[in-house]
Amino acid sequence: MSEAAIDTSGMKVTDEVVIEIQHMHKWYGEFHVLKNVNLTVNRGERIVICGPSGSGKSTMIRCINRLEEHQQGHILVDGIELTNDLKNIDAIRREVGMVFQHFNLFPHLTVLENCTLAPIWVRQTPKKDAEEQAMHFLSKVKIPDQAHKYPGQLSGGQQQRVAIARSLCMNPRIMLFDEPTSALDPEMISEVLDTMIELAQEGMTMLCVTHEMGFARKVANRVIFMDGGEIIEQNEPEEFFTNPQSERTKLFLSQIL
Ligand code: ADP
Ligand code: MG
């Protein structure tokens, strides 16, 4: 991540609620993995979610676009409730992009084809338009010259930037990141964080599970700490890091900072 101060003028939180999670519970079989999660996200927020391994961070954000199903409570995205109704699931997935720790690119498709696959087949975008748009986003993540390569020919940092470009090709209004830099060699972390910073500067609503506390301090407007399937505390970054309330948060911060 660049050391220079970040221009935060484009990072504006509006009063429009985009995600509402109310009293949400989830079980994996007998295991109660999410316990009464409540979270309201407004348009333009950059939320960092942290917490020990196994605390339910991935499960929580995966519930938001129905990669996991919750069993109790409500999740609404742009006012649409997430139920078993496929129409609603589709509508919500149109709004929400997701980037994973292990990129999840299709290895047998080129970078360009990775980016155009869903626009062409899910959105029926004409191929030429889909390619134009893909090149636009590949330029944005600074790898237009890699368009005709296969993922395996790229570095981890480049692959993750392809994954971000691929998500952006679906024009999401919310981006979910699940430890996007955890699988990267240290020298590649900053190129991915810089891409995320640019997105934030353009006003994208973002939920990021990450251990990059420098990113949290500079970019997040809110940091959430999870432990044992619960949101233990949340605060704006300065307050969160200098004045953690719960003993569990203090312990966690003492281990990672
Ligand atoms: P985190 O992302 O905070 O590390 P996860 O959401 O991945 O945590 O996992 C929370 C807990 O749920 C962990 O104890 C994990 O082992 C368990 N878990 C995750 N996925 C599954 C699954 N598909 N089936 C059963 N247990 C799971
Ligand atoms: Mg996880």
Secondary-structure map:
Layout: E1 17-28, E2 31-42, E3 46-50, H1 57-64, E4 72-77, E5 80-81, H2 86-95, E6 96-99, H3 111-121, H4 127-140, H5 156-168, E7 174-178, H6 186-201, E8 205-209, H7 213-219, E9 222-227, E10 230-235, H8 237-242, H9 247-256
Parallel strand pairs: 3-8, 3-9, 6-7, 7-8
Antiparallel strand pairs: 1-2, 1-4, 4-5, 9-10
Helix pairs in contact: 3-4, 3-5, 4-5, 5-6
The protein binds adenosine-5'-diphosphate (ADP) and magnesium ion.
Please give a structural write-up.
- With 257 residues, the protein is α/β, with parallel strands linked by helices.
- Helix content is 37%, strand content 25%.
- The chain is built from nine helices and ten strands.
- The chain has helices at 57-64, 86-95, 111-121, 127-140, 156-168, 186-201, 213-219, 237-242, 247-256, and strands at residues 17-28, 31-42, 46-50, 72-77, 80-81, 96-99, 174-178, 205-209, 222-227, 230-235.
- A six-stranded mixed sheet has the order 6-7-8-3-9-10, with helices on both faces. A four-stranded antiparallel sheet has the order 2-1-4-5, covered by helices on one side.
- Helix 6 links the parallel strand 7 (174-178) and strand 8 (205-209).
- The longest helix is centred in the C-terminal third of the chain and has 16 residues, at 186-201.
- It is globular and about 55 Å long.
- It starts with 16 loop residues before the first strand and ends with a helix.
- The mean pLDDT is 96.
- It binds adenosine-5'-diphosphate and magnesium ion.
- Adenosine-5'-diphosphate is lined by residues 28, 31, 33, 51, 53-59.
- InterPro entries: AAA+_ATPase, ABC_ATPase_HisP-typ, ABC_transporter-like_ATP-bd, ABC_transporter-like_CS, MetN_ABC_transporter-like, P-loop_NTPase.
- Residues 19-253 form the ABC transporter domain.
- Belongs to the ABC transporter superfamily.
